[in-house]
């Protein structure tokens, strides 16, 4: 039976509700700003092992001596001393929605998460500010040895496994300013381990809600797909609108084993007062495949470039992304494919829509090592401009250290043409309807790559963002 389609009116109401902060009781809220005392407090409240506290303190030292990035959106208005780095709702993790406090549950019901879990998902995690408030995996997958846990719980239950992979070779704590910050204050997130040759037929999903004013969210996602396994993981994110800046600096680490396949889908719809400075990276072994499907809209400023490191023969990466920038938004997004071994392959496809003065920048990288022969790689970025003040920048980079490769790149920037609009108007569409129809066609490759429920949601959210900008 096909899933029930979400009406435009339902999405409009849902989006309006997302912009309202339902105030839940708070168990603990740190003072604004970051120092060693707060880092130690986070670790103590989570009863972490000594090695995790040591990693946090090391990351803090790196952070304090590291400059802000020298590229991308202007971050001068981001006051890191005014951010609240740790906020705990007054609840404990539940495995039943009935046990989640009503103020928090209302938020996730507006997002449709409980219903999606019942009809289309193998498991769900839900995070509210710094803590996971709900987590559940269907028994079928538990019986096959799949681990789907709150990241904080995984540190306690699987310390040696977490210690081996957590911020070591994939995303080390010294990587860049906001990885360092993440390493110091991370909280919550998702841990997934899929055993050898286990194929999870339905997606796993986590949803992250940042509700505190001037808050920060720093969830950590760690996915380990053993040899021959397969998993699809979906993340969604949102925050209410305030008049003060918020910060999201999460981290995603994915380990794709031999002949394994991981699809990571993400729809990030942070509020326009949020700085979204996220890091996502995958290490891919022999014959493994990583698929990135990304939708970015909502935040005032974004810096996000999912990266695939293809470190063994036959590894593959496919990256598909859409970024939407409206008035007052600066979306600096793209993808990276780093080929370290022969016979590897990658594709990067990026589409952006700039409306009403919004700014989109695509940054793409294909890097091929000297010994990585017989590589096939391609990168394409298409940008659509709507309105005279909208901006699209494309910054592709190719680093190729041998000549036994096949690499292609193309970039196109264009506006919706008057002829296309006129043609549709002659068929009875208004200008606004014609524009929305053309935009839907433009983003179709991304929409088709998402599960039906999420494709409908992304399409409608973009329509809502465009209202008032055209027609």
What can be said about the biggest beta sheet?
13 strands, mixed
Number of helices: 13
Shape: globular
Give the end-to-end Cα distance, rounded to a whole number of Å.
Answer: 37 Å
Structure description:
The chain has 471 residues and is an alpha/beta fold. The protein has one domain (8-466). Helix content is 26%, strand content 37%. It contains 13 helices and 25 strands. It has helices at residues 8-18, 36-45, 50-64, 102-111, 113-120, 139-142, 151-157, 159-165, 177-185, 418-426, 431-442, 444-449, 452-466, and strands at residues 26-29, 87-89, 123-128, 131-137, 147-150, 189-194, 204-209, 216-217, 220-225, 230-238, 246-248, 251-256, 261-269, 274-277, 279-284, 289-297, 301-304, 307-310, 316-325, 330-339, 345-355, 359-368, 375-386, 391-400, 405-415. Strands 5, 6, 8, 9, 11, 12, 14, 15, 17, 18, 20, 22 and 24 form a 13-stranded mixed beta sheet that branches. The radius of gyration is 22 Å and the shape is globular.
């Amino acid at each position: 039976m096909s899933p029930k389609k979400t009406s435009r009116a339902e999405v409009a109401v849902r989006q309006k509700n997302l912009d309202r902060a339902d105030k839940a009781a708070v168990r603990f809220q740190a003072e604004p700003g970051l120092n060693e005392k707060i880092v130690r407090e986070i670790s103590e409240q989570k009863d972490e092992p000594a090695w995790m506290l040591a990693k946090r303190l090391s990351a803090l030292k790196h952070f304090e001596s590291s400059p802000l990035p020298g590229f991308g959106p202007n971050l001068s208005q981001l006051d890191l001393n005014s951010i609240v780095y740790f906020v705990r709702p007054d609840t404990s993790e539940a495995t039943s929605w009935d046990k989640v406090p009503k103020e928090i549950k209302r938020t996730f019901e507006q997002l449709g998460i409980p219903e999606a879990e019942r009809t289309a998902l193998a498991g769900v995690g839900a995070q509210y500010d710094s803590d996971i408030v709900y987590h559940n995996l269907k028994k079928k997958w538990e019986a096959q040895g799949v681990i789907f846990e709150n990241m904080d719980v995984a540190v306690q239950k699987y310390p040696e496994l977490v210690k081996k992979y957590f911020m070591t070779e994939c995303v080390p704590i010294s990587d860049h300013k906001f990885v360092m910050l993440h390493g110091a204050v991370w909280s919550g997130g998702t841990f997934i381990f899929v055993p050898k040759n286990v194929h999870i037929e339905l997606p796993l999903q986590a949803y992250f809600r940042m509700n505190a004013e001037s808050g920060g969210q720093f969830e950590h996602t760690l996915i380990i797909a053993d040899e021959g396994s397969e998993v699809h993981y979906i993340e969604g994110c949102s925050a209410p609108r305030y008049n003060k800046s918020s910060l999201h600096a999460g981290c995603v680490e994915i380990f794709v084993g031999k002949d394994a396949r991981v699809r990571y889908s993400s729809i990030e719809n942070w509020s326009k007062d949020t700085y979204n400075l996220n890091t996502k990276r995958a290490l891919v072994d022999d014959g493994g495949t990583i698929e990135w499907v990304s939708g970015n809209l909502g935040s005032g400023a974004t810096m996000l470039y999912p990266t695939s490191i293809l470190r063994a023969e036959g590894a593959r990466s496919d990256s598909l992304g859409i970024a939407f920038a409206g008035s007052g938004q600066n979306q600096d997004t793209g993808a990276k494919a780093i080929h370290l071994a022969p016979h590897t392959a990658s594709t990067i496809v990026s589409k952006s829509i700039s409306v009403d003065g919004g700014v989109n920048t695509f940054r793409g990288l294909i890097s091929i090592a000297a010994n990585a022969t017989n590589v096939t790689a391609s990168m394409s970025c298409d940008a659509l401009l709507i309105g005279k003040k909208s901006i699209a920048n494309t910054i592709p980079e190719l680093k190729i250290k041998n000549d036994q490769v096949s690499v292609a790149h193309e970039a196109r920037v264009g506006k919706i043409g008057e002829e296309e609009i006129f043609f549709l108007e002659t068929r009875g569409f208004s200008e606004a309807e014609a524009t929305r129809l053309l935009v839907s066609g433009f983003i179709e490759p991304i929409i088709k790559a998402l599960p039906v429920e999420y494709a409908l949601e992304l399409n409608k959210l973009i329509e809502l963002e465009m209202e008032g900008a055209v027609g």
